[in-house]
Amino acid sequence: MTIGEEKYSKAFNARYMSYRDIAKSFIVSEHFNVIVRNEHTILTGARGCGKTTLLKMLHPRALHEWDSPDAQYIKSSIPFIGIYIPADRQWKSQLDTFKNNLLDYSEIVENVFRGVVNVNILISTCDTFSTLIDINQCKNSFEVDLCLKLIEYWKLPLPLPPNLDDIVIKLRAMVNQFNNIVERKKVDVELPDICYSDFVDLVSIAIDCFEGVNRKYSKPVNVEEKWALCFDELEITPEYLQKQIISQNLRSRNQKIIFKLTSTPGLIELFEQASKLNPSELDDYTKLKLWVYDNRSQKNWRSFCEKYMTNRLNEKYKRDIDLNILLGEHDYLEGLKSSDETIEFSKLKSRGNTEFDDGGIMWHVMRLLQDFDKSFYDYLIRKNIDPLDPVPEDRKKAASVHRKIKPIVLYRYYFTEKSSRKAKEKKLRSRNINAFCHGKDYIFDITDGNPRALANLVNDFIDQVQFTNSGVLRKIPISKQARIIESFSKNYAFLRIRNYPTNEIVNNDLLLWQLIDKIGNYFFEKLVVDEFNADPVIFFYVENGDSKLRHFIDIALEAGAILKIEDEIPRKRVRRNIDIYRLSYSLYPMYRLPKIDYNPIDLKTILYPNKEITPNLFSN
Question: Using an 8 Å Cβ cutoff, are 552 and 560 in contact?
Answer without folding.
Answer: no
